[in-house]
Design a protein that fits this description.
single chain, Conserved hypothetical protein from pyrococcus furiosus pfu- 392566-001, domain 2, 428 residues, 9-stranded mixed beta sheet, 6-stranded antiparallel beta sheet
Length: 428
């Protein structure tokens, strides 16, 4: 099953500056304005390597990386270790602690059932990450994965090992406090590796990076089972799937450029499958969605302008078994499955290819952004949804299926740059 091992993490040195100015959010949620702001704060911010720009961005990243290694801006630890990582944050007035560990994990084909995905990926993103790995010889960010820890053997050990003061601790601009403990004790590492040996790993975030790592290993390794080949391993953050610190935000659907859009006609056509509660105050959307989720109902807030919305609640879940025959019950019962199958595909004609290319829709986790786009007239309407449950992610992955894109948004994102995995020298 899962095979983990320690590694000599590449980390920023004191010469680089303050760590809070050196790390960055995941590359795929950063816009150009944010990228420039990070570099303005510190020229050594990792975004220079993680999201390079220019005519030859990957070669430039490799050149810069080589300079940083030579100048001592970054350096590998002298000893192999695993790295305990915690995020403390607040959501809707409630405080959370998310704590797990970072280590190397041996790559496994999805067909082996050791590492399980839950979401579809795009080829463009995988090509980008592959090119960056090829030139730099390094993975700068970790894949976020979950595991079952019924007896809490691993979780308890992580708690015990992090009882003292962290080696690194800082609070970012969003109020999230990041802490890192460097663990080099072989006995402790062996204990965790042994307890992880019978685990399955469920990818929470970083599907593109995992598939890229697999592609890279296939291209560069003679034997994917060779434990001595560094490219056969990827860097992962691993956490108990039952952690109370796991928070998943919903990702709302915003539709645009629809021909002959008619909100009233749409609602009329939906009445066969949904109970429709019209003219609800816009400010109560999240409250009513929360209430529906608490009752186990599948509900969506349909917004097409003004200060009100319509609440759509599925009448009979059995219809999903007919619409998605052949899919698991876990997949059939997903909120996104209901919305995509019964509304987006059937009524709007927005199929999977359209969704992948975002031809008629885009995604946001910010309801206010969706409302603004509709009010400005740049979007026709929006559907606000409830978040996917962590247990649903597990069950869909265990069934060997993948959710539609943008089905989950784990919050907060793992910071990039505290630990990195250098597996060979950057290219000249």
């Amino acid at each position: 099953m899962a095979k983990i091992k320690p590694f000599k993490a590449l980390r920023f040195t004191d010469k680089a500056g303050e760590i809070r100015e050196l790390v960055c959010p995941p590359y795929d949620i950063i816009n150009e304005e944010q990228r420039l702001a990070l570099l303005e704060a510190n020229e050594h911010n990792l975004i220079r390597l993680e999201l390079p720009r220019g005519d030859e961005p990957y070669k430039d990243a490799a050149k810069t990386f080589k300079e940083w290694l030579s100048d001592g801006i970054v350096a590998c630890d002298e000893n192999e270790g695993i790295y305990l990582y915690e995020e403390r944050f607040t959501v809707k007035g409630k405080e959370y602690s998310l704590k797990g560990f970072v280590s190397l994990v041996r790559l496994a084909e999805f067909s082996e059932g050791v590492v399980l995905p839950h979401e579809e990926t795009l080829s463009k993103a995988k090509t980008d990450r592959f090119n960056l790995m090829t030139e730099t010889g390094c993975s700068f960010s970790q894949i976020y994965s979950l595991f079952m820890d019924e007896d809490r053997a691993v979780s308890s050990k992580v708690e015990a090992l992090s009882a003292g003061a962290p080696d690194i601790c800082f609070t970012d601009g969003e109020g999230v406090t990041h802490s890192l403990w460097c663990i080099y004790d072989k006995e402790a590492i062996d204990y965790i590796a042994d307890k992880m040996a019978d685990k399955k790993l469920y990818i929470a975030d970083g599907h593109h990076r995992y598939e890229t790592a697999l592609n890279f290993a296939r291209a560069n390794s003679k034997d994917l089972k060779d434990d001595n080949e560094r490219t056969n391993y990827c860097m992962m953050f691993l956490i108990n799937i039952e952690s109370s610190g796991l928070v998943v935000f919903p990702t709302h659907r915003v539709l645009h450029s629809l021909e002959n859009f008619d909100a009233a006609r749409l609602l009329e056509r939906c009445k066969g499958d949904f109970d429709i509660l019209e003219d609800q105050p816009l400010g109560k959307a999240e409250e009513l969605l929360d209430a529906a989720a608490a009752k186990g109902e599948k509900a969506f807030a349909f917004y097409c302008g003004g200060e009100s919305f319509s609440l759509m609640t599925l009448k009979n879940k059995a219809v999903m078994a007919e619409i998605l025959e052949g899919k698991s019950a876990a997949y059939q019962n997903l909120d996104v499955s209901v919305l995509h199958s019964l509304v987006l595909e059937r009524l709007f004609g927005i199929d999977k290819e359209n969704m992948a290319n975002q031809k008629n829709l885009f995604y946001t986790r910010d309801i206010s952004e969706a409302i603004s786009e509709v009010k400005k007239g740049t979007a026709n309407c929006a559907f606000f949804i409830n978040p996917t449950l962590v247990t649903e992610i597990r069950d869909v992955a265990a069934a060997g299926e993948k959710m539609p894109q943008k089905s989950t948004y784990f919050y907060p994102k793992l910071v990039t740059g505290l630990v990195m995995n250098k597996f060979r020298e950057p290219k000249e």
